[in-house]
Design brief:
Blueprint (H helix, E strand, L loop, with lengths): L1 H38 L3 H117 L8 H4 L1 E6 L2 E7 L15 E5 L2 E2 L3 H8 L9 E7 L2 E7 L2 H8 L4 H5 L1 E4 L6 E6 L4 H5 L6 E5 L2 E2 L3 H10 L4 E8 L2 E8 L57
Antiparallel strand pairs: 1-2, 2-3, 3-4, 3-5, 5-6, 7-8, 8-9, 9-10, 9-11, 11-12
Helix pairs in contact: 1-2
């Protein structure tokens, strides 16, 4: 391309020289003609001079035309060369584009393959996770069924009446040991025991013809034939005279089976004298109610978001509690308070037996109330009330 340019420049320079020479010759001819006129040369010399000038002019024109043709040829060559260069550049760019396009296609294919591999791996992982979850669900389901069966067994065991596990305090009856026998020190004024005919101060002589000298003997003899529905014949001494009382034990059995131990699990002892209010009479130490801050005298107005008006309502809410903790609303000194109480798991059987001392001399009463007494049917609404809503009284008032 540079060679063509130099050739074109050289040709242009030659053409310019010719043009300048032609101009110079024309000027010389004019001067010759002018001199000839002044000297008056012959006509022939003038014609020859004209012919000579014309010949030179024609020669200059031919030279100029040749220069123009060379310039045209040089331009055509430059155009061809530029066209070839552009074509070469275009081909190079197209090759580069093809290379980039091929590289992009290869990269896209690699990325697609990697994505497909990642999807397959993720799909397999999800399938593995799903299988693990299903296995965990099956395991949890089996464990829940096992727990459910165990709880059902516990409920059935609680529904079973075993006289050896019953003490007189569970019936609402307390004794004091005498030198020659057993005397009643207190009788619950509600429940089945209130319908038995036993009174405070009565001395127990025998039951079904067998002498009774201790609390254990009293309970065992009282429920010896409870499955036959025959009344127990209890001989007592009242005001120095013996009397025989026919006590139907079926009412005691039903009362015990229908009692709810959930109050004891929570560590609550309620006052049963006011059926229209759920009033706390005492709180067992180291119990959920104790750690929740429940105090004696609190009136329970709500549990787990449900309003509590009567003892039966409270027992139902306790039975339906299925969370680890629950909110308990209490009225303390005419001020509403919200307490958070732990819900004991009935499956763990959290009855605090340490609070129920086992006396060798069963006729003596504990110095502190440790086991709630039996409180059966409410006098107002006939609703059966748990047997552990009232405490033992150390010095019960006389009526």
């Amino acid at each position: 391309m540079k060679t063509t340019f130099f050739r074109f420049a050289r040709t242009a320079f030659s053409a310019g020289t010719i043009v300048l020479t032609s101009g110079w010759l024309n000027a010389a001819a004019q001067e010759t003609t002018s001199g000839a006129n002044n000297q008056n040369p012959p006509e022939i010399n003038r014609q020859e001079a004209r012919d000579t000038a014309k010949a030179k002019i024609e020669a200059a024109r031919e030279t100029k035309q040749g220069a123009r043709e060379e310039i045209r040829d040089a331009r055509e060559g430059a155009r061809d060369t530029a066209r070839e260069d552009r074509q070469t550049t275009r081909n190079t760019k197209e090759g580069a584009r093809d290379s980039v396009r091929d590289a992009r296609v290869e990269k896209r294919d690699s990325v697609n393959e990697a994505r497909e591999g990642g999807r397959d791996t993720a799909r397999e992982d999800r399938q593995t996770t799903r299988g693990a979850r299903e296995g965990a669900r099956d395991t949890v389901g089996d464990e829940r069924r096992t727990v459910r069966d165990a709880r059902r067994d516990i409920r059935e065991a609680r529904r079973e009446f075993i006289a050896s596990r019953i003490r007189s305090g569970d019936l609402g009856l307390w004794f004091r040991q005498m030198t020659n026998g057993l005397a009643i020190s207190d009788v619950n004024r509600t429940g089945a025991i209130s319908q038995s005919g036993l009174k405070e101060g009565d001395e127990i002589v025998s039951i079904n013809g067998r002498p009774v000298t201790s609390e254990r003997e009293f309970v065992d003899q009282l429920f010896t034939d409870h499955e036959s529905n025959k009344p127990a014949q209890v001989v007592i001494k009242r005001n120095g005279q013996q009397q025989t009382l026919a006590i139907q034990t079926k009412a005691f059995v039903e009362e015990h089976l229908n009692s709810d131990d959930r109050l004891h699990d929570f560590g609550l002892i309620l006052d049963h004298n006011d059926p229209n209010h759920v009033k706390v009479q005492a709180v067992m130490p180291q119990s959920p109610a104790f750690y929740a801050g429940v105090r004696s005298g609190d009136v329970i107005t709500g549990f787990s978001g449900q309003r509590v008006a009567q003892l039966a309502d409270f027992i139902k809410t306790l039975a339906s509690a299925n969370t680890n903790t629950a909110q308990m609303d209490v009225n303390r000194n005419n001020q509403q308070r919200q307490l958070e109480i732990e819900v004991p798991d009935p499956f763990q059987n959290q009855t605090r037996t340490a609070l129920r001392p086992n006396f060798d001399n069963a006729g003596q009463r504990p110095a502190q109330p440790a086991q709630p007494q039996a409180v059966p049917n409410s006098a107002n609404n006939g609703t059966r009330v748990p047997a552990n809503t009232a405490p033992r009284l150390v010095n019960p008032p006389r009526q």
